[in-house]
Amino acid sequence: MLDAHVQVQIGELPIDVALTATDGETVAVLGPNGAGKTTLLRTLAGLVALDGGRIALDDTVLDDPARGVYVVPERRSVGVMFQEYLIFPHLSVLENVAFPLRSRGVGRAEARRRSSAWLARVGLADRERAKPADLSGGQRQRVALARALVAEPAMLLLDEPLAALDVGTRTELRRDLRAHLASFAGVRVLVTHDLLDAVALADRLVVLEGGRVAQEGPVAEVTARPRSRYVAELVGTNLLRGDAHDHTVTLASGGTVVTADAADGDVYVAIPPHAVSLHRQRPEGSARNVWRGTVQGADLLGDRVRIHVHGEVSLVAEVTAAAVADLGLHDGVEVWSTVKATELTTYPA
Amino acid sequence: MTRRRGRGAPLVAVFLAFVAVVFFTLPLIGLLGKVEWGSLWANLTSQQAKDAIRLSVECSLWATAISLVFGVPLAYVLARVPFPGKAFVRALVVLPMVLPPVVGGVALLLAFGRTNGLVGPWIYDVFGWQFTFSKSGVVLAETFVAMPFLVITVEAGLRTMDRRYEDAASTLGAGRWTVFRRITVPLIAPSLFAGAALAWARALGEFGATITFAGNIQGRTQTIPLGVYLFLESDQPLAIALSLLLLAVSITVLVLLRDRWFGNVRSA
Fold first, then answer.
1. Among candidates A82, A90, A104 on the partner chain, residue whose Cβ is nearest the Cβ of B173
2. Closest among A166, A200, A198, A206 to A17, alpha carbons compared
3. Which of A172, B42, B100, B229 is 20 to 30 A away from residue A88, measured at CA?
């Protein structure tokens, strides 16, 4: 079990983050570049000492500046899988995996036997003698995982575990990694800027923005009810904020939203882009929310198109490519967006 | 014949470059032209030559070893440990590279000279070591001019290596010494090798500081370069034979380090 309160400043950004994780749980720290994710990970690994706060893993205090406690990285029961894996280029695959055992004084034969067993476990039994330069990205990832886990740490840290892979192999390796993570009984903390990695690998999300926790909770909860613009953009939903009174929300940015559920006070309103319909004429239908705006840009997303509509309520609408052609949704075109009250989610801010 | 499109080569630059190349080539031709190939072997195996060669090899290897023992930690401290006045320390270390060697010899004499040096008399009283007019003086002089080459080469290697490997190693349970031995040294091996080769070549060719500080005594302080200088007056074929030997060594070092210096040039 990890119980950490990390206070540290590297460069401009002061970081102040509380992070807990239980054994067998995977926590994903998600955030944009420069949010302090990697620094947070480095404090847990011991590569950066805390300025304030405390890090405890199970019954061991790893870092507590107030009490003058700081355990150096090599004495922490922590395995790290680094971004780009950092497989030692001058050592063979087997020597890489045996490295943590040899460093901790395990004898040559014993280290060899245990490393071999781990390589077999990740499906690399036949690559023991290979040099890292001859491995594929996926094989490197598996070597890195075996090397991080061979000494049986209490906690596994993963820094952008899939960022170094090309897109073609990522899906498959994400699934592999998920299976391997599930077989590790300790605490798992992963840092990523990729929502897909976080959703696929983690049980719980901690969203970091500007060195602080912007939102945290179970993956489904965070993605369904984003509480910041960053998370909303990641999960690809429209996030509005305003003052609710009964079934009407008056937005801070102007305009009103009619909701199915009654609410009061400061609320967020999440509108999934596929729930937004676009029309060239003011529609007559049953939708309670009808806003006027102009098209300002579009992104292609598979066979769907995301249309950015700027108006009294600015939204992103997801429509089919066919609809774009039929409606002539070019930049600058005036459109009406409609959303049914039942398709949006309202929750307290 | 078709004329190539675009601007031609700049003629003035090509001409001046050609003059420069000729300037570098002529001395080599001069040296090779004067070699008496028939008596080359006899010259190189004469007692005087053998004494000089043995002394040169021995002293230059000692100088390289001492440079490694002290220079690698120095490079490490310069590359990794922040401390005030680092720029000054680095300037001090690099100074022997630009200092006229004869001035280095005078400075060494005033520091380590047995009778009037700063610490020389003390060292002689305590340890019984005399550097002037002795083999250890040759080693000291060679180390003084050679070690900077090793330090700056290894420091550059330490600065450019990917330090994340060291971080990775420490999270894998390796203490500082293990990280240095098993990760840092192998990763900077090319720089270590190049630095040692450069330092050795510089030590082997050392003249000014050696003759000023250690003197020119056959079998004791008369290294190959000092021998060449002396024999040029008394036995020119021997001087040329020894010069040829040093030239051959220089070319060998160049070939060994070619990838380091010329590896990138090829693609240009």
1. A104
2. A206
3. A172
ipTM of this complex: 0.84
Tokens (6 digits) for A324:
């774009």
* Domains identified in chain B, total number: 1
Out of B164, B167, B172, name the one closest to residue A147 (CB): B172
Q: Which DSSP state fits A338? A: E
**CATH number of the domain that A241 lies in?**
2.40.50.100
Whether A336 has a pLDDT exceeding 70, the answer reads: yes
CA of B180 vs chain A CAs: smallest distance (Å) = 12
Residue A121 sits in a domain whose CATH number is 3.40.50.300
Contacts of A100 in chain B (CB under 8 A): 172-174
Q: Same structural domain for residues A145 and A222?
A: yes
Domain termination residue (choose one: A233, A251, A271) = A233
Answer whether residue B21 is part of any domain.
Answer: no
CA distance A152 to chain B (A): 11
Residue B25 maps to a domain: no
Write the pLDDT tens digit of every residue in B190-240: 999 999 999 999 999 999 999 999 988 888 899 999 999 999 998 989 999
Q: Which of A42, A82, A100 sits opposite B173 (nearest CB)?
A: A100
**Are A219 and A307 part of one and the same domain?**
no
pLDDT digits (tens, 9 = 90+) for A158-199: 999 988 888 878 888 888 899 889 989 999 999 998 888 898
Please state the pTM of the whole predicted model: 0.83
- For residues A198 and A298, membership in a common domain is answered with no
What chain B residue is nearest to A104 in terms of C-alpha separation?
Answer: B173
Would residue B104 count as lying in a domain?
yes
Among A216, A233, A250, where does a domain finish?
A: A233
Chain A contact residues (CB < 8 Å to B)? 42, 45-47, 72-74, 76, 78-80, 82, 86, 88-90, 99-100, 103-104, 147-148, 151
Full domain range(s) for residue A282: 236-348
**Any domain includes B102:** yes
Measured distance CA(B259)–CA(A150) in Å, rounded? 38
For residue B103, give the CATH number of its domain: 1.10.3720.10
Q: Do B167 and A47 touch (CB under 8 A)?
A: yes
Residues of A in contact with B169 (CB under 8 A): 88, 99, 103
* CB-CB under 8 Å, B182 with A80: no
Which of B161-181 are b and which e, b meaning 16 or more Cβ less than 10 Å from the residue's Cβ?
beeebbbbbbbbbbbeebbee
- C-beta atoms of A103 and B168 within 8 A: no
Strand arrangement of the beta sheet that strand A277-279 belongs to: A277-279, A334-339, A289-301, A304-311, A315-320
- What's A285's DSSP letter? S
Instruction: Indicate if A268 and A221 belong to the same structural domain.
Output: no
Facing B172 at nearest CB: one of A89, A90, A99? A99
Say how far residue B171 (Cα) sits from the centre of its chain: 38
Q: What residues make up the domain containing B98?
A: 50-257
- What is the Cα–Cα distance from A192 to A198, expressed in whole angstroms? 7
Helix B189-205 to helix B135-160 angle (10° resolution) is: 150
B111-157: pLDDT as tens digits: 998 888 899 889 888 888 888 888 999 999 999 999 999 999 999 99
